[in-house]
Amino acid sequence: MARLPRLTLPGLPHHVIQRGNNRQFIFVDRADREKMLSLLAEHATRQGVAVHAYVLMDNHFHLLATPSTATALPQWMQSVGRQYVRYFNDRHGRSGTLWEGRYRSTLIQPDRHLIRCMVYIDLNPVRAGLVADSRDFPWSSYGHYAGTRVDKLITPHPLYWELGNTPFSREAAYAEMVRTGISQADVNLLTDSALLGWAAGDEEFAARIQGSTDRRAVKMRPGRPPKAPVPDA
User: Fold this and answer.
1) Please, what's the b/e burial string for 39-50 (b: 16 or more CB within 10 A of its CB; e: otherwise)?
2) Secondary structure of residue 209 in the 3-state scheme
C-alpha cells in the first residue's frame, strides 16, 4: 500500500520521527549528536521552524516543531538529513543510506496533546531503559524546560508559558509532569499517529484539518462504510 502524503500545515505543531536504516545507530558519540543539534538549529533558523522539543536516541530521533510555511518543515528535514548523512559517512568511513526511508510526521492538536507530546519525547530514554530519570539524559529538551540548562535550539510554545507565572513555577510544573508521566494510551496514540500520519486530536480538530487538505486526516473506522439511504420512490 502506498504511503499517504504527509500532513504539513503552517502554524501547527508537528511530531516528527526519523529512524536509522535497519535500526542501525545514527549517533555513535557526543560529536555526532552535537553535529545533529547544530544542523537542526542552523536550518530551523533558515527555514522558519520553531523547535519545541527533541530527543536524540541511538538509532532514531523525535522532534516537536511548528513550521511557519507549508514548505518549511520538509525543507528543514531534507537539508538536515542530507548534510548529516554526508558528515556521518565521511567521519565513520561508510557509504550509502543512513535513514529508514523518509521521516514520519503528523499534526498535533496543541491544547490537547502538545504538552503531552513534550513529556512523551523527554521520557523516551526512560522508556528505552537508557536512564532511570529524564534529567540523566543530556540529549533531549528536558534540561531546558526543567531549568538545568539553556538550549538555544528550543523555542517554547505559548502553551508552555501557561504552566506558571514565573520561570521557577513553569520549570517545577513541567518537571512534575515528566515525573508523573503519561498513560500508555497516550504513548500509543502519539507513536502511532506520527508513524501512520494521522492527525492527533479530537473530532473538531480533525474536521478543521480535513478542511485544509485533500488527503484523509484521520484513520477510517474499521468495517464497511455505511450505505447511503435509498430515496423514496
Assistant:
1) bbbebbeebbbb
2) helix
Band of pLDDT at residue 58, cut at 50, 70 and 90: very high
| Pairwise CA distance, residues 203 & 107, whole Å | 13
In whole angstroms, give the CA distance from residue 177 to residue 133. 13
* Cα 32 to Cα 17: distance, rounded to the nearest angstrom: 18
pLDDT tens, residue by residue, 123-175: 999 999 999 999 999 999 999 999 999 999 999 999 999 999 999 999 999 99
Of 71, 72, 51, the closest CA to residue 157 belongs to 51
Measured distance CA(214)–CA(6) in Å, rounded: 11
Three-class DSSP labels, 126-145: HHCCCCCCHHHCCCECHHHH
Residues belonging to the chain: 233
User: Quick check: helix, strand or coil at residue 104?
Assistant: strand
Q: What's the whole-model pTM score? A: 0.88
Dihedral (CA of 130, 194, 203, 72) sign: positive
pLDDT digits (tens, 9 = 90+) for 40-55: 999 999 999 999 999 9
